[in-house]
Fold this protein.
Amino acid sequence: MKRGRIITGAIALGLAGSMVAALNSCSTAPATLVAPPAIPGATFVGNKTCAECHSAITRGFPSSAHARIHLEDAHAAGQTGCESCHGPASLHVSGGGGRGKFIVNPGKDPAACFECHRQEQAEFQLPQHHPVLEKKMNCAQCHDPHGSDILKPAGGLAMARLSQACAQCHREQTRPFVFEHPALREGCTVCHNPHGSVNAKLLIQRDLNLCLRCHAQVQGTSVARGQIYIGNIPHTDYLRMGACWSSGCHTAVHGSNVDVRLRY
């Protein structure tokens, strides 16, 4: 009898394990091999060859985070940083160079960037996203792939503010205001996911929970149970009206020139 129970238990565990394995096989993406872009017929020439023409780029490139990327092989170990993103360059060199000739330009096609940046690739598949996959934008518009700070666009000042990349297009939202939203001092990404989101306007939260990430506070002992104060103002009824920016209260979320409480 005892042996029968053991066998029955083993079968049950085996079935459970099979179900878990089946679920994992359906819901888990297959592993992807990270490889440099392929250019048919081309071979690798090494960084020094690239530097002969692209000295303006290679001069500052060692300080970039991307400078640590190399395709390690037996022929040119540690010398193929440029070609890790742009592909083997022998045909490009023998053809006399030229923009886009026998070379991969990640500024035109994000596929090279996605070889490493898998998380961002997934975010661009979300319902709300910047139109990179549609080829109306490219990664290099917001990131300088060769510069010391890849979170800022090329040509930006070393001490440029955090939201400079966004300000190129979203000038109305990032211009100076008399009464600024302090969140902008920390950058647009405090409220927005620039690559993609399930929420409108690329927001990281869809409702007033977005604001409460910063503006929630512990209620004092003198506050009645069920009442919510933000600052010294009761917000219990206001919070039932919807999100802070859509309920008619704080409509100028990026800043205001007329009202300290961020209204137009």
Remarks:
- The longest helix spans residues 2-27.
- Strands lie at 128-129, 179-180, 196-197, 229-230, 233-234, 255-256.
- The longest strand covers residues 128-129.
- The chain has a mean pLDDT of 81.
